[in-house]
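To whoever is on call:

I kicked off a structure prediction for a single chain this morning and the downstream step that reads the tokens threw a length-mismatch warning. I double-checked the sequence; it's 289 residues and nothing unusual in it as far as I can see. Pasting both halves so you can look.
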Amino acid sequence: MGGVSESSIRLTDNTALFTGNVSTANSGGFASVRTRNFDPPIDLTGFSGIQLRVKGDGQRYKFIIRSEAKWDGIGYCYSFDTVYNIWITVTIPLDKLIPVFRAKTVNSGAKLDTSHIYSFQLMLSKFEYDGALNPKFTPGIFQLQLESVAACDGIALPRFVMVSSAGVTRPGRPGINLEEEPPAVRMNEMLGGILTWKLKGEDCVRSSRIPYTIVRPCALTEEPGGKALMFDQGDNIKGKVSREDIAELCVQALDQPQACNVTFEVKEGESGSAPGDWLGLFSGVKADK
């Protein structure tokens, strides 16, 4: 768009640094970098997605895959947000890629042919798709550092574990007897709506597209860990649980496919699963809708 924006990519510290200056002058506002066509093309048959390890500037970027050799054809796009100056892993499901031609979606576009991948592309643009604006875009200097690009299989694992609190949905819920509830529920308003804000935080995580686990512990104690644990969903249980057990639970959740995209409450209890039976605990948890 008039050649006003500029960018480059270079290798530094074992990473690829995509950087430049994006200007919105002359109706422009984007910059991108693209591989030469792979020869032979890459075969991603049997893989479910692409994982990027990136450190960005807080803006929203696009990752684009092309399954044909010609230069100006349909690209299959996925937008992802970065966190300022923090390394994150971005998982891009291949079935979520959008067929796009020059920032316009192609409704009749063929499905991505994963057996013939010819190129990868990174882009920063003030546009999302079909004229919509990128809500995270800021003109000027930008920087995206790329450590790796890897194909991943069909096993989804959590990438973010949030410790919330049992009781977050109970303030104001019809039929709740406050006198039977924990202090945080009874005193939610006096405590500045602490449970209300925790629930809002949960909602942000659930809508983020990041694979997550949301843990809602009952009353936390300083007692030694190693207790039998009980999971529940629906935000109804009451009890207590050791901080040590919650810390171990958070670590273990990262390796459990059943812990992906779930929200659950947890307490200790003699009738719970034996200590360390993480597969048994997570096997009864249903994914969030």
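Update from on-call: the warning came from a stale cache, not from the record. Cleared it. Sanity check on the structure: The helical segments are 183-186, 194-206, 243-253, 278-283.
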